[in-house]
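Annex B, item 7. Sequence and structure tokens for protein A, then protein B.
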Amino acid sequence: MTFASVYPMYVAKVQKNGRTKEELHEVIEWLTGFDTRKLRDLIEKKVTFEEFFRDASLHPNARLITGV
């Protein structure tokens, strides 16, 4: 599964919850270290989730994300 195929669903979900695409990008950048340019490049290349996270520099506090 590619990140590009799921990304529009992430955008729709955050917008449904009253947030913006820019805020989503801030969270992704915090988590992965990917800036907007790099994120756009990964989407265009249609990288898989495995490739996406393999190339990421996960934030040291990422383990604190609980989904709650």
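Protein B:
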Amino acid sequence: MMITVIDGMGGGLGVKIILDLKKRYDERIKILALGTNSTATAAMKKAGADLAATGENPVVVNCKKATLILGPIAIITPDGLMGEITPRMAEAITLSDAKKILLPSDRCNIDVVSTPRILNMTDLIKELVDRVGEELF
């Protein structure tokens, strides 16, 4: 099963997701890291992604065939991640038939009602990894 992880900026969130996924499901999954920039892509590849690509076109192309997309909620927002998410990227991610499991962020002005006000990213990533298991196994 190929899991797509999308991140930008320094790739730190994507790195944490990939490390936790590999720790829990290593041999049962393959991870495609899609970075909005080369720094994020390199960090996610180093963390254990099986495949990696950078930029708008790889996001658009690979979201069409993705079955599961993971990342911060800002990836579905045009100009999200400090402007790194283009409208075309946000549209491709949003319109993809893939199941999306997204992490909330208090930096993108999207407040999801069921999300605690104080975000503990470690706990949220654990929940994301649990949900991946529910989806796949």
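Comment on protein B: Residues 2-131 form a domain with the Rossmann fold fold (CATH 3.40.50).
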